[in-house]
Specification:
With 311 residues, the protein is an alpha+beta fold. It has 3 domains: 57 residues; 159 residues, no CATH class; 79 residues, no CATH class. The chain is built from 3 helices and 15 strands. It has an 8-stranded antiparallel sheet with strand order 3-2-1-15-7-6-5-4. A 5-stranded antiparallel sheet has the order 11-10-9-8-14, with no helix packed on it. A two-stranded antiparallel ribbon has the order 12-13. A hairpin with a 4-residue loop joins strand 9 and strand 10. The radius of gyration is 32 Å and the shape is elongated.
């Protein structure tokens, strides 16, 4: 909208300037007319886009709004350190309350507010939802704030909707468990398919970016992944022979061998004044010839699964 307004202002100025030059009637007639035509076209397009977006959001709310119940996967693991929410409670010193931890069996509310904005909110229980006491998603004292609907996309193939909401926290410490970026967001995917009237919502928040590079060997002209078995490697002097297993056509790492180093050497005569010297060069060649990919990365995410509650 801001881009269209700026363009409209510039084109209006062009039209005014063009008509102000009385001695350049040809310039005014040609470029002033073009500016006004383009201006009217842009205005029509802007109105069309706005109406389309409004209708799309309204259909989205009518179809998917409601209360969902579910859990974040990190809350179901035994290790509390991988949880999404920052938990200041030390269980070794005192008894931790459920409201200070696990994001399990919580409520997700997708609705349209009085201002017309589509909002995503989380609650610990139905009583909290009735009181309007939102769950501090990133942890107590984080002052988590989820903004209104930022974008809405439609997957033509599956019919699923992907909605994004801005995610901020008043306490910046709580953002340390998220991907280190300037702008955080919550991605909400809603399945188009509904079984017995139950709809599924998937919540994803970026956690980190990790390397996805891997070791491989070229065997028979084909790149095959390699895994190193450190437990069965031979730790002998002067060097360790690693046990490496090569992936086959079925995705199994069944072909295992031990690495070896072969000494390669070259003797080159070098003519010098008054005689000949020998240049002795050597290096080690590792077999099998292990290689490593570069520039591959994977985004780790916190994910949650929620289903609509029975009325």
């Amino acid at each position: 909208m801001a881009t269209v307004s700026l363009t409209r202002y510039v084109l209006l100025r062009v039209a005014i300037i063009a008509n102000s030059y009385s001695s350049e009637r040809r310039f005014a007639k040609r470029y002033g007319f073009i500016a006004l035509v383009v201006l009217s076209t842009l205005s029509g397009c802007a109105a069309l886009d706005t109406n389309t977006a409004t209708e799309r959001e309204q259909t989205f709310v009518e179809t998917f709004s409601g209360t969902y119940q579910g859990s974040f996967g990190s809350a179901l693991t035994e290790d509390p350190s991988d949880d999404l929410n920052f938990n200041p409670c030390d269980s070794t010193k005192r008894r931790c309350l459920s409201t200070e931890a696990y994001l399990a069996d919580i409520l997700l509310d997708l609705s349209q507010g009085a201002d017309g904005a589509v909002r995503l909110r989380f609650f610990r229980s139905l009583s909290d939802q009735r009181r309007g006491a939102e769950l501090d998603l990133l942890g107590p004292g984080c002052y988590t704030d989820i903004g209104p609907l930022r974008s809405l996309q439609y997957d033509n193939e599956s019919g699923n909707r992907l909605a994004t909401f801005a995610l901020t926290a008043g306490n910046p410490i709580c953002l340390n468990k998220l991907r280190p970026v300037s702008v955080h967001e919550i991605k909400l995917t809603l399945d188009n398919y509904s079984e017995s009237g139950v709809r599924i919502a998937h919540v994803r928040i970026d956690k980190n970016v990790v390397s996805a590079n891997y070791l491989y060997v070229v065997k028979g002209g084909v790149e095959r992944r390699v895994k190193i078995d450190l437990d069965k490697s031979l730790r002998t002097r002067p060097r360790t022979r690693y046990r490496v297993c090569i992936e086959n056509d079925y995705g199994e790492f069944a072909d295992c061998v031990f690495t070896d180093q072969e000494i390669k050497q070259v003797l080159l005569p070098v003519p010098l004044p008054g005689g000949v010297a020998i240049n002795y060069t050597w290096w080690h060649k590792l077999t099998p010839n292990l290689k490593r990919t570069r520039g591959l990365y994977r985004v780790e995410q916190y994910s949650g699964r929620f289903a609509t509650m029975a009325p």
